[in-house]
Structure formats: C-alpha cells, structure tokens
Specification:
Elements lengths: L9 H7 L16 E4 L5 E3 L1 H15 L7 E5 L5 H11 L2 E4 L20 E4 L6 H9 L4 E5 L10 E4 L5 H18 L13 H4 L3
Parallel strand pairs: 3-4, 3-5, 5-6, 6-7
Antiparallel strand pairs: 1-2
C-alpha cells in the first residue's frame, strides 16, 4: 500500500494505534479486520480506515457546520471532538447525552442537526436512537466489538484511544476545511496532533 494514496503516511496511522482493535469482534466488523495478533487483539485494515475517513469528510463537507453534531460520551474523545468543533464551527457534545435532545424541541438545550457523528455507537446509543427516530443520518466510529444497528456510515477504528481519535479528527478537520474552501491548500492547515490529543 503506497503512502501516496493514503491521507497521512502509514507510519502516522500506526503510531496512533488507530488500527488496533479489541479481542472481541462482531459479525458486522469482521470485514474490516486485517488479522488477529497472537495476543488475541484484532488488527483493522488501514486502507479501509483511510477510505472511510475520506468518505466521512466528504459526507460532512456537504453540510454547513451548524447542521453537524458530533457526540462523545467517552472522555477520551472530548479533546478531539471539541477541537473539531472549534476549528470547523460544528456543534459538539462531550459528556452524557440526554435522550430527547434531538427529538424534543421544547428542551432548553435542544440540538438541531442534519447529520450526526458519534464516537462509539454503544455509549452514544441514546444519540444514535434519537437521530434514527427523526431520520438524521448517523456516522459512527466503530471498533471491532461494535454493532452497526441504525448507523448509515461505519468508520472502523480504535475508538477508545486518545491518539487514534486525535489523528482521526485532525484529518477530518483538515479535509472538511479544504472541501468547504475555508483553507486553500493542505499547508494552510496549522493545527497539530497536540491540539487534538493529550498523549
């Protein structure tokens, strides 16, 4: 696999651990698994991860930032998600998501969205179900142990590591800004991995 065709060099993906799955795998996620290591951990296919990140960026780029909501109940995703929101203008939600936030307009913190992205379909299941009920497309980052119910686009990746979420949102942010012509060329993107991840 040549680095030319990937969004970032293979080495950057490997260093972030974005390809390291769990010891469990669901039937749905099997097609994204490259191999199982001797210690039982599964390894995701980097080419497929890259393709899905590209697809996600292209999909999100069709929407104005105020129509995008990114949700992360898991704390490891908070920094990356907030930075994505800060740089793109997308709405973000870090912490416990209360059911009804996207379905009940009478709530004071009602979230209006045209597309939703969740960091993990399991802890973020309330958001997935809300979006599904009102017909909003859902993008979900899925590890090898995730199911894909009610999800429109699955992005296979290690969705638990700060570094892997950092690199994923770093790439997404840059691609979104480029696709929306907010920046002209990749070099205009000044953010670094440190902006998206503590590790």
């Amino acid at each position: 696999m040549s680095d030319q065709s990937l969004l970032v060099p293979t080495e950057d993906y490997l260093k972030s651990g974005i390809h390291i799955g769990t010891k469990f795998k669901t039937k749905y996620m099997e097609k994204f698994i490259y191999k199982t290591r001797p210690d039982g951990l599964t390894v995701l296919n980097i080419q497929q991860i890259d393709e899905r990140i590209r697809l996600t960026a292209d999909m999100l780029s069709k929407y104005a930032p105020e129509d995008i909501v990114v949700i992360s109940r898991r704390e490891n995703g908070w920094k990356a998600v907030k930075q994505f929101g800060k740089m793109t203008g997308a709405k973000t939600f870090a912490g416990r998501y209360t059911p009804g936030l996207m379905t009940n307009p009478s709530l004071k913190n009602f979230l209006e969205a045209k597309i939703v992205m969740v960091i993990d379909a399991w802890p973020d299941k309330n958001a997935v179900m809300d979006a599904y009920k009102v017909g909003i497309p859902v993008i979900a980052l899925c590890d090898t142990n995730n199911n894909a119910n009610y999800i429109d686009l699955v992005v296979p990746c290690n969705n638990k590591g700060k570094k892997s979420l950092g690199i994923l949102f770093l790439i997404l942010t840059q691609r979104y800004l480029l696709n929306r012509h907010i920046i002209k060329k990749p070099e205009d993107f000044k953010a670094t991995m440190q902006d998206f991840s503590d590790e």
